[in-house]
Amino acid sequence: MSANSLRVDLAAAFRLMVTMDWHESVGNHLSLAVSADGHQFLVNPKWQHFSLIRASDLLLVDSNDPATLSRPDAPDSTAWCIHGQLHRLVPHARCILHVHPPYATALAALADPVIKPIDQNTARFFNRLAYDAGFNGLADNEAEGQRLAAALGDKRSMIMGNHGVLVTGPTVAEAFEELYFLERAAKTLMLAYASGQPLAVLSDEVAERTAVAWEDFKDSAYAHFRDLKTLLDREDSSYQD
């Protein structure tokens, strides 16, 4: 993809977060690697509402540049802490979406935040998520970013205890799809918990078979993201600017 196409896709993701009610004030951050080693990446500017972000607004930063927070247009320190360290230390995390969507964040606040496989969406994540229980306040220093990178490890996504979620993917479309189904899975599980009835948890064998079967549908992420962008264009295409 061209450099501009990468910017447009990431800008679209910000706008789509608003339509899904996954945004939060002028906080939370999305980023996308643009260099082969993943160290150079795009990220949202400091304290700008997701509904206003355009492709041209996105900052280009380098995770190896210690002077980044001294720039006149420096990103938010928490964005630099998390995204800067992950792009530097976790090569497979090309696109990183860190947000606090309602159901996944509620799940992250439970003593047991593990997504139990009770349907095909929850089974999608069976043995495929990292869980971090080390929340110690706002993530605003290099050491915390390094700790989160280690907690993610070789997993694609992570439930951040007492915090929210961190989702990654090779592309914006794939990361967005991962977040979409993660929030759907959390919603299903939290609603099931709210019923007060015992959960009908799938066997490990069925859950794993279901998770593997999801891989056959991975290309649907591109169709979903394409169609969501089409809907955005009908309402407001300014994200492309």
How would you characterize this protein structure?
This protein is α+β, with helices and mostly antiparallel strands. The protein has a single domain (3-240), classed as Class II aldolase/adducin N-terminal domain (L-fuculose-1-phosphate Aldolase, 3-Layer(aba) Sandwich), CATH 3.40.225. Helices cover 42% and strands 13% of the residues. It is built from eight helices and seven strands, in the order αβββαβααβαββααα. The protein has helices spanning 3-19, 77-89, 102-108, 120-123, 142-152, 172-194, 204-214, 220-235; strands spanning 29-33, 40-43, 59-62, 95-99, 129-132, 157-160, 164-169. It has a seven-stranded mixed sheet with strand order 3-2-1-4-7-6-5, sandwiched between helices. A hairpin with a 3-residue loop joins β6 and β7 (164-169). α2 (77-89) crosses α5 and α6 (172-194) crosses α8. It is globular, with a radius of gyration of 17 Å. The two termini are 17 Å apart. The mean pLDDT is 95.
Short description:
The chain is of the alpha+beta class and 241 residues long. It has eight helices and seven strands, in the order αβββαβααβαββααα.
List the helices and strands and how they pair.
Elements: H1 3-19, E1 29-33, E2 40-43, E3 59-62, H2 77-89, E4 95-99, H3 102-108, H4 120-123, E5 129-132, H5 142-152, E6 157-160, E7 164-169, H6 172-194, H7 204-214, H8 220-235
Parallel strand pairs: 5-6
Antiparallel strand pairs: 1-2, 1-4, 2-3, 4-7, 6-7
Helix pairs in contact: 2-5, 3-6, 6-8
